[in-house]
């Protein structure tokens, strides 16, 4: 019986090659997109799930209210984690992670013999780090790797880069950053084969090392200094909600006086590590998490593309039902029941689905590098190691086959044997209505996706061209993270180059989040009612080099150390009149004293952070001798960067020998703030193209069938004098009406979806009618081009050929 079903299905597919090709290609393309998106989403949700005790490990996080602002921090104060283990028996172990970039050590110069390079991803960790977190050690003992001070663990790639073929274990390497220069002993080599972690680093240094370690271990405040990532491992069976209820009195016991002194309200919470990578709510994350809404959008796109492919199958199967009507009638006459026919037709759809999947797999392997480039991911296929991939494939075959074949199976099996044998079969109104509804549904989805492309492109173009309040073009960024380089002399030499308009140094970079802030208040105020302001330190050249625009006052001069320039938002919140603000004294609470600043100028608001956020209070402090001024910005007046960089490299070699010469462009750095939106745009562009192509395949097949069915009608019309253009218009009108209905349905849905997405930006483009009109026009043009081949072919055929059987 099964063999007979298979033979019949194969014979029908071979006989109807166009029908088979459209269905198989459509299903293959849909499966390709769906499978890749499922793999991508599964990878994003797999972070930290490889940990041996992932269900018992939690990150301690902070929510606080300070100076009227609410903050959710991924970090806590240094003593808290140890206090939790000491106070609560539910806590089996703790560990802490410190990102030295908070102190200006963004990169670390690693040296071994004659090899040296900058490493960005370096973390300081407690000696218990590898007790909580599971890493695959190629060399070394995880329980002892961090036991001794001045120990360092490297990833295999970093070790190979530094040591080559030499055995790295036990070797002493020198690390140089803004915190100083130290010698460290290699105690372990690891790789990432076990799985992905939100703690991404190539270098792990024990916390008991050098200046940074001393700062962390000596910081005993329970209120401020929320700069360290803390993790606890709970004993098996512990109720984390119950433990979390005990944290408010715990914090009050040790930090109540400190919290009151600075006017802070603070709470501690426990966050499961499995949720860290897919939670967007917290500031100062170790690595940028991914939005669960973004992943939901991807899953929705995958589902829609697969549904579009299934719609093609359903449409073409019901459209060509007349060709199988006699087969159904004969089978029923010789005793086949309706259930037998349903099984047969479902089997055929499952077979087509299987062929589509088998075709999709080599396509996926071939297109994987391109798709990874689109999504900025690193998906790797492991057909023989990951059983989940086979489960996904089985589910795709089953769901696609059943979804695509369900209606055709029930529709075809319902034919009355006596009618179809007599030739009285006609396509039922319900089937025609369903086909039209499904075409409308396909193009509704396509127009929604096209509207998404237009809206996202408009927003990205708005971001690209919006006046940020500073000049981002022709700016080169350099970073020096090592001691021993006289940056003032280096910049003085660079200013002598004719292509250099200006050169400055600061402790932070425009286009990246500013992590430093201080409570600012006027005379008569205090720290409890201060205003939170982001701060940057720089030399006297920064405002001019960045192109900041002054509302009043002046730029920094020589001997202006301690003077400040503020933005208009800070002036407004302090209720200062820009015309008279110059000379105003501002105050801030330091560690042991009150700091005093004098305002010398007020600049127009500029977007030192991304357009996702409104402009916040900002203060630029003149502190040219600060050791934290490690970011150099060069303002150029040339388009010949090759020659300019050659000259800068020569100066660099003279003033900073042994320091790697690395640079970036400020406009590119600003653009990196919108990587998620750019990735979403790339994904929607790519998969919308796939969805439209699949829809067009189905429309192409239906147009061919319609032209075939109406060939005699066309012949009669031509005999009676109808023109080719009139017949083309007649045949195209039915399909264009369906696209018009799809446009009317899609407009409110598209507007709502894009309006919701744009709410993530504090500064955004307005939605206009032309965005949706353009989407509809593109859909109509695509549909017209798709059906035109068959309509023109049918309209130009000799009517004698179509009427000769009459």
Description of the structure:
This protein is of the alpha+beta class and 806 residues long. It has 24 helices and 24 strands. Strands 1, 2, 3, 4, 5, 6, 7, 8, 9, 10, 11, 12 and 13 form a 13-stranded mixed beta sheet that branches. β4 and β5 form a beta hairpin. α9 packs parallel to α12 (387-413) and α14 crosses α23. It is globular, with a radius of gyration of 34 Å. The two termini are 41 Å apart.
Q: Estimate the global geometry from the Cα principal axes.
A: globular
Q: Separation of termini?
A: 41 Å
Radius of gyration, rounded? 34 Å
Derived structural class = alpha+beta
The major β-sheet equals: 13 strands, mixed
Mean pLDDT across all amino acids: 79
Strand content: 15-25%
In short:
Helix content is about 50%, strand content about 20%.
Layout of helices and strands:
Layout: H1 2-15, H2 17-44, E1 57-66, E2 69-73, H3 80-87, E3 91-98, E4 108-112, E5 115-119, E6 122-125, H4 129-132, E7 136-139, E8 151-155, H5 156-163, E9 172-177, E10 180-191, E11 203-206, H6 210-218, E12 229-234, H7 240-245, H8 247-262, E13 264-272, H9 292-319, H10 322-333, H11 338-375, H12 387-413, H13 417-422, H14 429-465, E14 475-479, H15 487-495, E15 500-506, E16 517-520, E17 531-538, H16 542-546, E18 550-553, E19 563-567, H17 568-573, E20 585-589, E21 594-603, E22 618-622, E23 631-636, H18 641-655, E24 663-665, H19 666-671, H20 675-709, H21 711-719, H22 724-758, H23 769-796, H24 799-803
Parallel strand pairs: 6-11, 8-10, 17-22, 19-21
Antiparallel strand pairs: 1-2, 1-12, 1-13, 3-6, 3-12, 4-5, 4-9, 7-10, 8-11, 9-10, 14-23, 14-24, 15-23, 16-17, 18-21, 19-22, 20-21
């Amino acid at each position: 019986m099964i063999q007979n079903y298979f033979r019949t299905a194969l014979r029908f597919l071979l006989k109807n090659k166009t029908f088979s090709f459209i269905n198989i290609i459509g299903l293959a393309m849909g499966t390709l997109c769906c499978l890749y998106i499922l793999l991508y989403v599964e990878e994003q949700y797999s972070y930290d799930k490889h940990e041996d005790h992932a269900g018992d490990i939690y990150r301690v996080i902070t929510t606080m209210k300070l100076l009227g602002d609410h903050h959710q921090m991924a970090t806590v104060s240094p003593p808290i984690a140890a206090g939790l283990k000491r106070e609560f028996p539910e806590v089996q172990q703790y560990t802490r992670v410190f990102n030295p970039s908070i102190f200006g050590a963004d990169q670390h110069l690693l040296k071994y013999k004659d090899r040296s390079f900058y490493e960005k991803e370096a973390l300081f960790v407690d000696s218990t780090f590898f007790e909580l977190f599971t890493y695959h050690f190629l060399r070394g003992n995880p329980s002892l790797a961090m036991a001794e001070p001045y120990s360092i663990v490297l990833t295999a790639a970093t070790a190979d880069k530094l040591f080559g073929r030499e055995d790295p274990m036990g070797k002493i390497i020198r690390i140089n950053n803004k915190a100083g220069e130290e010698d460290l002993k290699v105690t372990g080599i690891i790789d990432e084969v076990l799985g992905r972690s939100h703690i991404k680093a190539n270098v792990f240094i024990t916390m008991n090392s050098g200046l940074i370690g001393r700062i962390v271990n000596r910081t005993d405040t329970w209120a401020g200094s929320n700069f360290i990532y803390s993790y606890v491992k709970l004993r098996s069976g512990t109720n984390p909600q119950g433990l979390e209820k005990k944290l408010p009195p715990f914090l009050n016991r040790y930090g109540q006086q400190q919290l009151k002194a600075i006017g802070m309200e603070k709470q501690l919470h426990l966050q499961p590590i499995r949720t860290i990578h897919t939670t967007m709510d917290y500031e100062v994350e170790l690595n940028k998490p991914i939005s669960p809404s973004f992943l939901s959008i991807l899953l929705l796109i995958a589902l829609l593309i697969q549904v579009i492919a299934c719609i093609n199958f359903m449409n073409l199967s019901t459209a060509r039902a007349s060709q199988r009507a006699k087969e159904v009638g004969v089978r029923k006459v010789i005793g086949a029941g309706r259930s037998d026919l349903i099984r047969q037709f479902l089997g055929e759809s499952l077979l087509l689905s299987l062929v589509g999947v088998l075709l999709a797999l080599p396509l996926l392997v071939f297109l994987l590098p391109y798709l990874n480039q689109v999504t900025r991911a690193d998906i790797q296929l492991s057909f023989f190691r990951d059983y989940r991939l086979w489960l996904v494939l089985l589910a795709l075959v089953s769901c696609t086959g059943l979804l695509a074949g369900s209606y055709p199976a029930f529709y075809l099996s319902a034919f009355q044997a006596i009618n179809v044998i007599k030739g009285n079969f006609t396509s039922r109104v319900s089937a025609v209505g369903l086909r039209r509804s499904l075409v409308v549904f396909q193009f509704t989805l396509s127009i929604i996706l096209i509207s998404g492309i237009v809206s996202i492109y408009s927003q990205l173009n708005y971001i690209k061209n919006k006046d940020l309040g500073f000049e981002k073009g022709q700016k080169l960024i350099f970073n020096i993270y090592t001691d021993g380089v006289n940056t003032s002399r280096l910049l003085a030499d660079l200013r002598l180059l004719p292509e250099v308009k200006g050169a400055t140094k600061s402790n932070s970079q425009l286009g990246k989040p500013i992590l430093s802030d201080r409570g600012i208040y006027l005379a008569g105020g205090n720290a409890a009612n201060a205003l939170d302001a982001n701060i940057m330190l720089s030399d006297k050249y920064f405002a001019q080099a960045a192109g900041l625009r002054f509302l009043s006052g002046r730029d920094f001069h020589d001997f202006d150390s301690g003077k400040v320039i503020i933005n208009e938002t800070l002036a407004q919140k302090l209720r200062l009149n820009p015309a008279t603000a110059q000379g105003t004294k501002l105050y801030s609470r330091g560690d042991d004293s009150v700091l005093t600043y004098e305002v010398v100028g007020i600049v127009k608001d500029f977007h030192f952070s991304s357009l996702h956020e409104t402009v916040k209070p900002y203060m630029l402090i003149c502190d040219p001798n600060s050791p934290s001024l490690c970011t150099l910005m060069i303002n150029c007046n040339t388009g010949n960067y090759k020659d300019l960089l050659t000259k800068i490299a020569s100066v660099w070699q003279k003033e900073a020998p042994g320091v790697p010469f690395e640079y970036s462009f400020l406009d590119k750095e600003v653009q990196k703030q919108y990587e998620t939106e750019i990735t979403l745009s790339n994904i929607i562009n790519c998969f919308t193209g796939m969805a439209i192509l699949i829809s067009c395949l189905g429309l192409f097949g239906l147009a061919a069938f319609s032209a075939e069915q109406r060939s005699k009608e066309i012949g009669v019309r031509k005999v009676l004098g109808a023109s080719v253009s009139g017949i083309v218009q007649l045949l195209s009108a039915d399909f264009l009406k369906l696209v018009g209905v799809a446009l009317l349905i899609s407009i409110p849905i598209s507007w709502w979806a894009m309006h919701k997405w744009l709410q993530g930006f504090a500064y955004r483009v307005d939605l206009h009618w032309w965005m949706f009109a353009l989407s509809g026009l593109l859909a109509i043009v695509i549909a017209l081009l798709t059906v035109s081949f068959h309509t023109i072919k049918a309209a130009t055929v000799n009517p004698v050929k179509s009427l000769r059987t009459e």
